[in-house]
Amino acid sequence: MTRALATWGGQPYAEFADEPWTAGERARLEELHRTARERLAGAQQRCGQAAQALSDARALTREQPLHEEGWRLLALALWARDRQGDALASLRQARRVLGEELGVEPGPALLELEQALLHQRFDLLHRETGGSGVPAVPAALAVPALPDARPPAAPLAAEAAVAPAAPTRHGCPAAPTVLTPGRLLGRDEEIARLAAAADRARGGRAQVVLVSGEAGLGKSSLLEAALRQLPPQGWVAAFGQCPETGGAPPGRAWFDMLPALAQAAPPGSYAEELAPLLAPGTETASGQPDGSPARRFRLHRALLGRLRETALRQPLAVFLDDLHRGDQESVELFLLCAEQLRDVPLLLVGSYRTGEGDLTVALARLAPRPPLRMALAGLSDTQAKALLRRTASGMSDRAAAALAERAGGNPFHLRESWLLLAGEGEEKALGSIPQGVQDVLRRRLALLAPAVTAGLRLAAVAGREAPVALLVHAADHDADQLRDALDAGIAPGLLTEPRPGTVRFSHALVRDALEADFTRLRLARMHSRLGRSLIALGSDDVAATAAARGCGP
Questions:
Q1: Would you say 496 and 503 are in contact if contact means Cβ atoms under 8 Å apart?
Q2: How far apart are CA 299 and CA 308, in angstroms?
Q3: What is d(CA 551, CA 529) in angstroms, rounded to the nearest whole number?
């Protein structure tokens, strides 16, 4: 490609530049030339020629500042040379140029790169550069940052890393564990509690931590923040995620985790017995199938022995994300680690979504030695506005306040709202439901019983907040069934109880998403039903609700 580009000289059809018949062909050839230069810069990145890629990308942005690919290549080249601040500055310059010249926001590719930089998502850098010129962070720590926040398309790959241990005493690093929230807003307390748990574990007593919360609150980001920071402090760190896809082999989260862990800490004498987790479906020498009780017992014993040996050599941190999606084998192995590795330097961290999956038995088994439980809450209004302004500095105060209130402090809802605003403007963002939020909420509702969904939809028509007595009166089924439906909405965090006898949607977007699925005809019927109930109840409070919602008899 370099030789081909070297043959280009001057402008195409320069001697006929004033002739109308050359305009289209000149534009076509110049576009091909620009595309070839961009591809060459990308290939240089992947081949480790970072300096040349940086030079060529700078030239592209100088000559054609309105083409986004040049800015993307420039930011990647700077990031690969460990110049993250300059990379962010180049993306902001691209935003300014596009806004001033064209009146548009950057496209999806630039926005994705900006988010990856802000959240230290080295997986994108590895993908774009082929692993060359990556900043001084262990390559195996390249884990995505918003897993919990988006509807997952595929399970995350398991990760593991190890760094040289600090000076030790009795095999454990002496310096206290230091974890910082970095770019994570509103998680200072949680990251400090994780650091304290790590210190206790390093003293020789295993610590189990459970992180819970609704979808989008940042559970995965919290785990990944600790995962990135522990290996440089002398820990072996391993990460696995329970997949959402059906048909995965039993123990898939551990199956994904162990190969990376083996690179950090070789399995030694346990390699043969752990083979089924590296190649599911294999058989023993005696012909016993992979899933036989005897084989499972030996497999579990080998895994526990291997983890014990690792932790005794160097403190071990195991992170298992999305336990609510875990198959029986993945969850069982997590529980066995908690129950049988109590006397080794092990930090065992699991996360799950509130109200999804059935972890009743698992949580009961952990109860005799209570784990550290961290239930994540939404961001405060101040933190939500700060998050919005971090990604969209030109957002008006009105839009920031309205979006923060609608999202209820959920980082995923805030991010999706900002993307809608960036693409379609403030008015659209303030009056619409981001498609990503709608998709996630529909999935959550699909997990509920039809009677529960019906009760929640009735509450949505009544408003962001509604008296339970009004909903009971207006329901087309018995009172106990309606109350059960509301209880089922409170458990996963869709509803809250601001005061006795009242329910309130945790986020305005949740209410809007429920109401949006109604046809106008059905919505009118439900308004009428609520209006008749308001009149029948005869309360000033509910009359005010009727006026606000436009309900009539």
A1: yes
A2: 14
A3: 8
For 504, the enclosing helix (H) or strand (E) is strand 502-505
The pair of structure tokens assigned to 494 is 């869709």
Minimum mean pLDDT range among 41-45, 74-78, 167-171, 461-465: 167-171
CB 407 within 8 A of CB 417: yes
Q: Where are the beta strands (DSSP E) in 288-345?
A: 316-321
Contact present, 376 and 213 (Cβ < 8 Å): yes
**φ, ψ for residue 65, nearest 5 deg:** -65, -15
DSSP string for residues in 406-444: HHTT-HHHHHHHHHHHHHH-HHHHHHS--HHHHHHHHHH
Q: Is 187 helix (H, G, I), strand (E, B) or coil?
A: coil
CB atoms within 10 A of CB 6: 8
Q: Per this entry, what is the length of the chain?
A: 553
What would the mean pLDDT of 228-243 be, rounded to a whole number? 88
Residues 6+ apart with CB under 8 A from 466: 459, 502, 503, 504, 545
Region at 472 (left for phi over 0; alpha for psi -120 to 50; beta for the rest): alpha
317 pLDDT above the threshold of 90: yes
Pairing of strands 168-169, 346-353: unpaired
pLDDT at site 391: 66
User: Is 534's pLDDT higher than 80?
Assistant: yes
- The answer to whether the predicted template modeling score (pTM) of the entire model surpasses 0.70 is no
**How would residue 371 be classed by pLDDT, with cut points 50, 70 and 90?**
very high
